């Protein structure tokens, strides 16, 4: 999704010349997200996406940066 962080949100607002934007936030639990990513890794031959440690770190990083973008 886009925007994913505060900097991207600010860029989007400036680019669209809006003072605010509405966002649809779809909340998916980590287990579901992990299963979807693993399934996609098999279809798209993404070896890194089949490693739980890599996926968990990516989800943690995403959660940390998106917090500021969604208020």
Keywords:
elongated; 58% helix; single chain; 71 residues; mainly alpha; 0% strand
Give an overview of the whole structure.
The chain is 58% helix and 0% strand. It is an all-alpha fold. Helix 2 (30-44) packs across helix 3. The longest helix is centred in the middle third of the chain and has 15 residues, at 30-44. The model has no long low-confidence stretch (mean pLDDT 84).
Question: Strands, helices and their partners?
Answer:
Blueprint: H1 6-16, H2 30-44, H3 52-66
Q: Brief overview, please?
A:
With 71 residues, the protein is mainly alpha-helical.
Low-confidence stretches: none
Span between N and C termini?
16 Å
Category from helices, strands and their pairing: mainly alpha
Largest sheet: none
Q: What is the radius of gyration? A: 15 Å
The total of beta strands comes to: 0
Summed up, the helix count is: 3
Strand percentage: under 5%
Specify the helix fraction band: 55-70%
| Apparent shape | elongated
Q: Roughly what is the average pLDDT, rounded to an integer? A: 84
């Amino acid at each position: 999704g886009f925007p994913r962080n505060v900097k991207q949100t600010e860029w989007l607002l400036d680019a669209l010349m809006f003072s605010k934007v509405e966002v649809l936030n779809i909340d998916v639990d980590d287990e579901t997200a992990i299963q979807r990513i693993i399934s996609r890794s098999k279809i798209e031959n993404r070896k890194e996406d089949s490693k739980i440690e890599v996926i968990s770190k990516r989800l943690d990083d995403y959660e940390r940066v998106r917090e500021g973008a969604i208020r």
